[in-house]
Write a structure and sequence with these properties.
alpha/beta; Aldehyde Dehydrogenase, Chain A, domain 1; Aldehyde Dehydrogenase, Chain A, domain 2; 14 helices; 23 strands; about 20% strand; binds nicotinamide-adenine-dinucleotide; oxidoreductase; NAD-dependent succinate-semialdehyde dehydrogenase
Length: about 475
């Protein structure tokens, strides 16, 4: 029987008032894998009313109770992860090992927010008179809405639901229509762990219809979006026009600066996993490999050799290390970026071709001799594509790293502490990781600057985004 994913409104699973469904495609074979309910205006109104009621309940729930319920949901997610991982494989096209990893890390993120919920302290400010007291108290901002994409269907939701619940907010998630089944199971964990009705809601449908109604709606006090820069800019402008707090987690075009003194073997190993995880469909995936000229050819050879070992296939096969792209549309985008670069003189060092005719597979691809006039050097490829660029001085590499309007993740590999410090200080990005991949752990900030977004979805900053600071001052009665 075909898998059906429903909406979660006010503690109930419902098919949607119009009983309309969208097809869900398995990216590994292009076949219809399931169906997902499509929310109507009536469903959205119900979700908003439930979120308003849920907010009143949740903000009055003691932080110890909230924390306990969140920890319980993380435990359920771990217990059910084998079953949920198979849904991620079938609908997001991930290799099984990656699906397991996504769920393990999502449970860790939820655990961390459950702990940090207990530490959302305010502060006392010294008064100018002994008759006066001054304090800053933290209050949940109100019902929130989060829009999450298909690349990490559960983890992206947890990065919004975790801090919202920790802060005492209710939240409606517009989940990914491309991979709805794993998010549905995650919401089942929240419900079964005791999150009260209305505190969390899950909608699917037409993204622009849902954001067009929910973002300006007076019930909603906070908007969080993960996705592409153009959509993020649009939603941020709507949020701004209605004076809503917004967190925007958008695209990147991550530079990685590889100096001649780096441990090249280790760099090639780590960058292989970081680049090709989920077929390169991660906003922090390294894209522009800026390599000191004396080791340029050597590094390309090391990287190519590792690409040969990637096993392309359906994520259900445990041997698979490189799954498909998410959609025919993404495959076509990648192919056109490669064609454009090659037509302008880039060298195809490895891959570049579609694999098979079923599903949306692309070979791991390396382009060298790329120049700034090529589209791929300016647009985020969001796929299994690495661009190799030589540099002669560190300043030149830093200038190239900062050339684009993106500023999400950046990487550096060097044995020289002075170079590492210079890169960390000069590269314009929200996150920079040197000599390892150290991003995306729960306790550290996760977010971009420039066109890559506003705010953070990790660490203390993530909870702060769902809190208001209220200044309270009192004077002793005269
Ligand atoms: P897209 O711009 O069509 O969609 C990106 C996401 O935004 C999807 O989840 C989509 O459902 C949602 N969306 C689109 N229009 C919307 C609207 N009006 N209101 C609310 N949500 C809306 O791009 P795509 O082809 O699906 O994905 C590729 C691009 O998206 C990449 O270039 C990448 O930058 C970005 N992306 C980023 C992340 C991330 O983790 N930051 C994740 C997925 C996609």
């Amino acid at each position: 029987m075909m898998l059906q994913s429903h909406l979660f409104i006010d503690g109930h699973w419902i098919p949607g008032s119009e009983e309309r469904y969208l097809d869900v495609i398995n990216p590994a074979n292009g076949e219809v894998e399931g169906r997902v309910a499509h929310a109507s205006r009536y469903d959205m109104d119900r979700a908003l009313a439930a979120a308003e009621r849920g907010f009143k309940v949740w903000k009055e729930t003691s932080v110890f109770e909230r924390s306990k319920i969140m920890r319980g949901a993380a435990t359920l997610l771990r217990q059910r992860s084998e079953e949920i991982a198979t849904l991620l494989v079938a609908q997001a096209g991930k290799p099984l090992a990656e699906a397991r990893l996504e769920l393990a890390s999502a449970a860790d993120v939820l655990d961390w927010f459950s702990e940090e919920a207990r530490r959302a302290y305010g502060r006392v400010i010294s008064p100018r008179s002994s008759a006066v007291s001054q304090q800053v108290i933290k209050e949940p901002i109100g019902p929130a809405v989060g829009f999450t994409p298909w690349n990490f269907p559960v983890a992206q939701i947890v990065r919004k639901v975790g801090p919202a619940l920790a802060a005492g907010c209710s939240i409606i998630i517009k989940g990914p229509e491309e991979a709805p089944a794993a998010p549905v199971e995650f919401f089942r964990c929240l419900h079964d762990a005791g999150v009260p009705a209305g505190v969390v809601g899950l909608l699917f449908g037409t993204p622009a219809e849902i954001s067009g109604y929910l973002v300006p709606h007076p019930t909603i006090r906070k908007v969080s979006f993960t996705g592409s820069v153009p959509v993020g800019k649009h939603l941020a402008s709507v949020a701004g026009a209605h004076m809503k707090r917004a967190t925007m987690e958008l695209g990147g075009h991550a530079p990685v600066i590889i100096c001649a003194d780096a441990n090249l073997e280790l760099a090639a190993d780590v960058l292989l996993t970081t680049k090709f995880r989920h077929a390169g469909q991660a906003c922090v995936a390294p894209t522009r490999f800026l390599i000191e000229r004396s080791v340029y050819s050597k590094f390309i050879q090391l990287y190519k050799a590792r690409c040969e070992n990637l096993v392309i296939g359906d994520g259900r096969d445990p041997a698979t290390t490189l799954g498909p792209l998410n959609s025919e549309r993404r495959l076509a985008t990648l192919q056109s970026l490669i064609e454009d670069a090659v037509s302008k003189g880039a060298t195809l060092e490895h891959g570049g071709r579609r694999v098979g005719t079923k599903g949306f597979f692309l070979e791991p691809t390396i382009l060298s001799g790329v120049t700034p006039d090529m589209r791929v050097m300016n647009e985020e490829p969001f796929g299994p594509l690495a661009l190799m660029v030589p540099f002669d001085s560190l300043d030149e590499a830093i200038d190239e790293a900062n050339r684009l309007p993106f500023g999400l993740a950046a990487y550096a590999w060097t044995a020289d502490l002075r170079a590492a410090n210079k890169i960390s200080r000069s590269v314009e990005s929200g996150m920079i990781s040197t000599n390892h991949f150290g991003l995306a752990i729960p306790e550290t900030p996760y977010g971009g600057i420039k066109d890559s977004g506003i705010g953070s979805e990790g660490g203390l900053e993530a909870i702060e985004a769902y809190l208001n600071s209220k200044f309270v001052t009192q004077m002793d009665p005269a």
